Amino acid sequence: MATEYQRVTGAVMVADDAYRVLRVNPAFTELTGFPAALLAGSPSADLYLRQSDQDHAIERAALDAEAIWSGQVSLKKADGSIIKVMQTTVATTIEDEGRCHYIHIIEPLDSASGSYDQNTHLPDRRMFKEILTQELENAKRKHFQIGVLFIDVDNFKVINDSLGYVKGDQLLGEMAQRLKKLLRGNDLIASVGGNRFAVLLTDLVHAEDATIVIMKLMHALESGFDIDGQDVVITVSIGIVIFPGDGDDSEELLHHAEHSMYSVKADGGNNYQFFKASIQSSAVNRLSLESEMRKAIERREFVLHYQPQINTISGHVIGMEALIRWQHPERGMVAPFHFIQIAEETGMIVSIGDWVMHEACRQTKAWHDAGLIDLKVAVNLSARQFSDRHLLDRIAQVLAVSRLDPAYLELEITESMVMRDIENTIALLEKIAAMGPSLSIDDFGTGYSSLSYLKRFPINKLKIDKSFIDDVIISDDDAKIVEAIIGLSHNLKLNVICEGVEDADQFGWLQERQCNEIQGYYFSKPLLAAEFEAFVRSRNACF
Ligand code: C2E
Ligand code: MG
Ligand code: MG
Description:
Layout: E1 11-15, E2 21-24, H1 26-32, H2 36-39, H3 53-66, E3 68-76, E4 82-94, E5 99-108, H4 125-142, E6 145-153, H5 156-163, H6 165-182, E7 188-191, E8 196-204, H7 209-222, E9 225-227, E10 230-232, E11 236-243, H8 250-266, E12 271-274, H9 283-296, E13 302-311, E14 317-328, E15 332-334, H10 340-346, H11 349-369, E16 376-380, H12 383-386, H13 391-402, E17 409-414, H14 415-418, H15 422-435, E18 438-444, H16 451-454, E19 461-464, H17 466-470, H18 476-491, E20 495-499, H19 504-512, E21 517-519, H20 529-542
Parallel strand pairs: 11-12, 14-16, 16-17, 17-18, 18-19, 19-20, 20-21
Antiparallel strand pairs: 1-2, 1-5, 3-4, 4-5, 6-8, 6-11, 7-8, 9-10, 13-14, 13-21, 14-15
Helix pairs in contact: 3-8, 5-6, 6-7, 11-13
This protein binds ligand C2E and magnesium ion (MG) (2 copies).
């Protein structure tokens, strides 16, 4: 084999399984100044400016998993100077020797090839890093969060082998265009070598919002690609990093995102993972969340957002649900989904919940004093708080300290909390009601309720769960359930509110069926106190 690689126009270096140089092509000699004969047998590592162990580990992981790696490296020249190059390494088994060889294809980075990938027409790795670096500066100044996704097509080698590389390239090109269409104008997708893509998400409000984008991207790939009449379905593995928190510069962020991508691969691919398994699952992470949570109250890291509740007849804001957020110094804004469960399991929810009640009542009283007289605040109670034997004292204390008229506090509990120990629950609810606050049942419809008991509970409101509202227009079943709950509420002389109302159709449908109140993005997301106040003032003035 008067070897293929000698005809390749770019520089090529082949090493054996012990990383010793076997041969180089003329372009490699031209690029580096090293004659082939001089290099044969020497350790290939000598040709590079010392790679960090981390670089090396990533490269090895890639070669083991996928038999291909590409990335930026610094190559030494015979004259002692250094050049930055883009290197793609392919591991192949040489049939007659049964041994592995590594073929390195090298492209100088400052060549005239421009900053776009020729196949996908997307920005290349170099341009991506430049833009990311600028965006990081921006984010630091304006206190934004940035997300970087590192996307790798699963089993691309198999696809490439069976389709041929021309069609493989065509597939990547079409995939690139499909993903690009899904992103917002400010976001950026780039080709970062071979079958890899990187996505830059600027201006993230919550770190978890990155998962919404990922869901969209993964969903978009579910319908396959028509490659010359052949239906090709692909899956991807995605690693995610968030700035600030997961790295300080573009290089480090990309590395960490790539690392996370490899741990997805190790679990079988077709999935995504945050770096340091962010926020969710990882045990280490959970421990640090726990210890950080213990300090969060005194460090004043919790904040309440308020989501307006609108009367369907008057159109007025009549109240709001207080929803907790954790403004974490490194993780950014953490949604309750990620910490309420842990707070509940460790018992910390009792003191956190206490803080929520105090803060919600203090704020509501301040609004009353400022002229927004009829606002009622709804506060979520967790199961652990509900079974805390000091609950009544705590409520009494909150009311006394805040001097809020008790009729303007509403406590939200769930079906499962009240259906556990009916007789004691009824007694407890009656005591709460006697102190003035009203009670509502949250997420109604998702648990199981005994209707005969429902009548006996001193509750004022049912809150129909978002999951029924989502499909109320398109699903007959959900529509019937919602109609039944509204009817039931009216019969039991209870108020009924729907949460998660997102569009005008849903709102119109519920209005026709005389649902009393609405809460949902259609009117407003949960807002900071000042934003909420402005919202109420402008909205209630218009109606
Ligand atoms: P929940 O009490 O059922 O609160 C409603 C959730 O639905 C809120 O999520 C709200 O932001 C979201 N939501 C409202 N309208 C829409 C909409 O139109 N579309 C969509 N997609 N979502 C909507 P959030 O704030 O993430 O809270 C989630 C859950 O965390 C709450 O569910 C509640 O169970 C719990 N939680 C929040 N704050 C507290 C708290 O202070 N104490 C306790 N114990 N639990 C809390
Ligand atoms: Mg609630
Ligand atoms: Mg709910």
